[in-house]
Design goal:
The complex is a heterodimer of chains A (125) and B (110). With 125 residues, chain A is mainly beta. Chain A is built from no helices and 11 strands. Helices cover 0% and strands 45% of the residues of chain B. In chain B, the strands form 2 sheets. In chain B, strands 1, 3, 4, 7, 8 and 9 form a 6-stranded mixed beta sheet that branches. Classes of the chains: A mainly beta (125), B mainly beta (110). Chains A and B meet through β5, β9 and β10 of A and β3, β7 and β8 of B.
Chain lengths: 125, 110
């Protein structure tokens, strides 16, 4: 069974740090781009970061650039999100997601097809 | 404020057909495929439609998607009570170099 399981969430004070992990199983982790997506309480989905299969390319939403670092360990089938200088507005459920590639009518399309159950991060004093 | 625009709410009675719109721009929907996600209360999002109009295995054919220019739509026919959920559209944005989502549409089955 294809599965993603996040961990590492919790309560942290403003300015603090937290490291999220995502354990992948049931598929060849090293062949997929991976993403982090978050959802603030009562709000919609917000993409946070992407990482290429070998970790050589990383992209971030502007609001976390310089504070968050996405990384991966293909030998451990794991994805990480190091979150530093946390702010109240970073409070959210954080999901890891697999980025799938589909060939449709001679074009490649992309999207997040498998999601974890999420881990909750609360930034508060 | 979300990059993609969806109506905040939609509703219908069992058996009805409802549509949810998603409006974007040339840098996202206009140049990339649209995916739709269903999020049931208290659960993680689930891929509902990919590549504008493709259904993953296991998704009922009551769900369909379409795209035209910089807009997309999700249609649900034969509405059922279990369809009550939040629905999100998403696309890659070439200018932002990242995924963008709609604000979500809460579907209520009356």
């Amino acid at each position: 069974e294809v599965q993603l399981v996040e961990s590492g969430g919790g309560l942290v004070q403003p300015g603090g740090s937290l490291r999220l992990s995502c354990a992948a199983s049931g598929f060849t982790f090293s062949t997929y781009w991976m993403s982090w997506v978050r959802q603030a309480p009562g709000k919609g989905l917000e993409w946070v970061a992407n990482i290429k299969q070998d970790g050589s390319e990383k992209y971030y939403v502007d609001s976390v650039k310089g504070r968050f670092i996405i990384s991966r360990d293909n030998a451990k089938n794991s994805l990480y999100l190091q979150m530093n200088s946390l702010r109240a507005e970073d409070t959210a459920v954080y999901y890891c997601a697999r980025v799938q590639q589909w060939l449709v009518s001679e074009y490649y399309h992309y999207g997040m097809d498998v999601w974890g159950q999420g881990t909750t991060v609360t930034v508060s004093s | 404020q979300s990059v993609l625009t969806q109506p905040p709410s939609a509703s219908g009675t069992p058996g009805q057909r409802v549509t949810i719109s998603c409006s974007g721009s040339s840098s996202n929907i206009g140049s990339n495929a649209v995916n739709w996600y269903q999020q049931l209360p208290g659960t993680a999002p689930k891929l509902l439609i990919y590549s504008n109009n493709q259904r993953p295995s296991g998704v009922p054919d009551r769900f369909s998607g379409s795209k035209s220019g910089t807009s997309a739509s999700l249609a649900i026919s034969g509405l059922q009570s279990e369809d009550e959920a939040d629905y999100y559209c998403a696309a890659w944005d070439d200018s932002l170099n990242g995924w963008v989502f709609g604000g979500g549409t809460k579907l209520t089955v009356l």
